[in-house]
Amino acid sequence: MSTQFARFRPSGETLLWGAVVLNAELFTLIYYFATSNYSGGELRYLLYPFVWINVALFAVWKTNPISRSDRDKIVGVAVAVVYFLVLGYAGGLFSVTQPMPGISSSGFRIAWLPPGWGPALLYRGDLLRLSILPFKLVGYLALAYLVYATVLDAAGSAISGILGLFSCVSCTWPVVASLVTGIAGAGSGLATMATSGSYDISTVVFVVTVALLYWRPTIR
């Protein structure tokens, strides 16, 4: 058990690179504040993307999948791809749209959102819509990679990967918020709390899920 928990202890190299990354992110935020018209608000929403990205990069960097056979590798890749597609769809990275007769809405554009949220790649076509937020893309790719490592380690058992679906609470929670809004009224404090709390919850669940999937491949 102590050996398993030792994997969470950062090495000197990890601490060095972590300091470099954190300093780069701090500089990015300072530059954003200096050049944008940011007028305040909840600072934590500017920090959440960095939490997702940093946790994801650390887990991927410290995870080394070991394949026992080509079959396990193929199964692992297949499960990870499907898992990522499910997360991407539920998490809003992409969605299917219905074509509107006589209206052409195809086209790409870049949304210059705050660091981590952006720059976001947006696309709306007749059949597909993309909303690629950097922190979500990195986070979901990391979860898929950890599921791949779990499949290889568990020889086909990826049940723990299902936990990662709860990282999409950022998308399912607004559905609850809309129901609350409909019942209690759009101006109610309860509706506001339900909407504003979505990324608070999703960030906590994402971190816990990454930790579980990172630890899971060590269990035989």
TrEMBL record:
Query: Which residues span the membrane?
Result: 14-33, 45-62, 74-96, 137-155, 162-185, 197-215
Q: Which InterPro entries match?
A: DUF7546 (IPR055968)
Q: Where do the coiled-coil regions begin and end?
A: none
Instruction: Read off the Pfam families from this record.
Output: DUF7546
Claim: Membrane is one of the keywords in the record: yes
Q: Which domain of life is it from?
A: Archaea
Keyword set for this entry? Membrane, Transmembrane, Transmembrane helix
- Name-wise, this protein is ABC transporter ATP-binding protein
Answer yes or no on keyword Transmembrane. yes
